[in-house]
Amino acid sequence: MISATSISADDSKPLRIALVDDDIEDKVLVESTLRSIADFEYELIWISDTERADLLLLRAAPDVCLLDYWLGGSTGLDVMERLKIKELDFPVLLLTGTHDRAVDLEAMNRGVFDYLVKGEITPALLERSIRYALHRHQLEQQVRDLSLRDPLTGLSNRRFFEEALVYAARRSARRDRSFHVIVIDVDQFKQINDKHGHAAGDKVLIEVGERLRRQVRATDVVARIGGDEFAVILEEGEQHLNLTEALDRMRNEMQFSLTLSDGGQPLAINVSIGLASSLQAEESPSGVVARADRAMYEAKRLRKIAS
Description:
By secondary structure, the protein is an alpha/beta fold. It folds into 2 domains: 133 residues, Response regulator (Rossmann fold), CATH 3.40.50; 149 residues, Alpha-Beta Plaits. The strands form 4 sheets. Strands 2-1-3-6-7 form a 5-stranded parallel beta sheet, sandwiched between helices. The chain has a 4-stranded antiparallel beta sheet with strand order 9-10-8-13, with helices on both faces. Strands 4-5 form a two-stranded antiparallel sheet. Helix 7 packs across helix 8.
């Protein structure tokens, strides 16, 4: 938590402040104001390349961003518009030369946390604005995390999965790479609930979630998207992703025995798994999920025939 006396996102490190501004005089003004704030450690990252400001900001990963309104042939609000389709994980304060209510309102609608007039910025005002932005951003992140988390398994929920799916599709299109969706469904889950009770069913879901989490990379998305249905989003990175090997590991991990608290015979747990990869640029992300879902049901059908 950010305390009332702390301005830092992490008290053990200097605050990383990105300044997006193509005017050296503005940079000098901001630096001078920051230096005047007592007991304040910071690292200023100056981004003067306004054409690539959104990409450079995401790469810099600041704690807070000071964004100038006038940026050569564009505005800071244009940068905010481009940032909206990416994962923005820091608050933004807009700097401008004059009072303009229309700009102020538009800035707030674009996700800007505060609006500061450069000629009126004092060390106390800048400190207060940064502290407020960091605190509000943290609270919003906490609320968002609660709304996007499955309370039983601790995994992401369907809402987060659907948002992440859109981002994965956009990133993959930009990089000309595929992304992959795996859908996992617990076999005979209804019978487990009916015979052993919902507490036993919950224990199975928690264990499946834990095992899935262990089988994926930190960058992959694992979600519980339905009662006994889970999904994983895997994106191609710089290194080749061996899907066959990943699926084999997952299948092996997902076949296990679970001892219940009643001391009875351990339950044999199996799952059905379906995989689909993005193939065509015109296919919607939900179309990839639908193919993975069909593949999962086909795997379930074949398992029933084999048994």
